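Adenylosuccinate synthetase: structure tokens wanted.
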Amino acid sequence: MSVTVLVGAQFGDEGKGKIVDYISAEMDMVVRFQGGDNAGHTVVNESGAFKLHLIPCGIFKKGCVALANTGMVINPDELIKELGEIEAQGVDTSNLKISSRAIILMPYHIELDGLSEKSGRTGIGTTKRGIGYAYADRARRNALRFENLLDHEYCFERVRAVLPTVNAELLAKGGRAYTEEEIFDKIRFWSEKLADRIVEPVSYVNKAISAGKRILFEGQLGAMKDIDLGIYPYVTSSNPVAAYAAVSGGFPISKIGEIVGVMKAFSSAVGDGPFPTEMDGSEADGFRGSGNQIDDEFGARTGRARRLGWLDMPIVKYAATINGFTSIAVCKIDKLDTYDEIKVCVGYKLDGKEIDYMPSARELYRVEPVYVTMPGWKSDTRNIRKYEDLPLNARKYIELIERESGVKVKYIGVGPARDEIIVRD
Ligand code: GDP
Ligand code: IMO
Ligand code: MG
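Answer:
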């Protein structure tokens, strides 16, 4: 089967960028299928170090098509900026295509998100990139899509129709109104820069599948931030789960052969919401670093210090259940190299009783994690490339992940760079 989907198994920032960059060596097409520039996917390879927000991480492989597909909300200004930045680092971006059905994230979506976050009542700690408001406009059918950039008259007509509602909301939230001309100028500029990259996505993807092309769908964020299945309301506004690649891509779900879940060897999250295994300040600082290294725990999009905690296996198990992982990639095992003991949460107690389901956000605030303590390995794993060469206790850690999740660990990250990885057959 030629379709692989890769998604986050925790709260986002698991190391998806690194694993996509590695796997894309074997791919003909890499496709982003949800989210927008709330993503920050870190890639370190022979071309340099990158934090990609909208461009699929397969862009570095020569000849690989990178498709920003339906299901995404794309800020064209950010895309143009990101293309410029990676081109300046010598990366060929001619293979970047955009779905005609992708939603255009407008400047006012960003403003509305910012205003909503400023209000103590509605803020949840978003990335303030306008994601929720762009998806809301899609749902209420007020959004523009990339196809509209190819037909200015119709596009302007749509802007005239929706702008009064947008401006009323902006003014009610204490923002400023937009003029039609401001938006028309943007549309002219975006068309000039991006029109050549727009493709009709359903035939594009299905033809590639029929031709046996190897396609990787790259998820953004992670299962716990799924709008339906995550810690609502502290979630994003899309579905970062494998099935959504087929829903938004317009191809049969039966075409998906592999589903790779990416997880970190511990837990991290940005934004508000429950986090059962969260560590307090000083303990967390050990994982976080100062921010000077590419792999320190600061948001790749917002620069916010990430909240950190011990590995939470009920979360990974839940992600495996809802996605159907065929394999797991565990990143950052090297970050545990110095610990004497490592705690892993293997269950939750709610009101004193062990539970066997993922509770809602309100209950998750109240659960008591059940921990096991594993002995550390106290040695450097960063130069190891074969599973058998990992210290015994590191292998035991991986085996615990396999036992608790019921899924085989195929990839183990031992550093941020592309080749700092162990691949098991
Ligand atoms: P993504 O959003 O899932 O792509 O993850 P991010 O890029 O936001 O965050 C993952 C962080 O971990 C980045 O700083 C990566 O450079 C780093 N990283 C990924 N895999 C590894 C690994 O195996 N070891 C180390 N030390 N860092 C890693
Ligand atoms: P990647 O793809 C981590 C979080 C925000 C907030 C919630 C909603 O790099 O893993 P949004 O801006 O989407 O409306 O914010 O989701 N969030 C992320 N956290 N990694 C990300 O992306 C995230 N994208 C959004 O912090 O809690
Ligand atoms: Mg990230």
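The CA atoms of residues 65 and 95 lie 5 Å apart. DSSP finds twelve helices and 20 strands in the chain.

Cheers.
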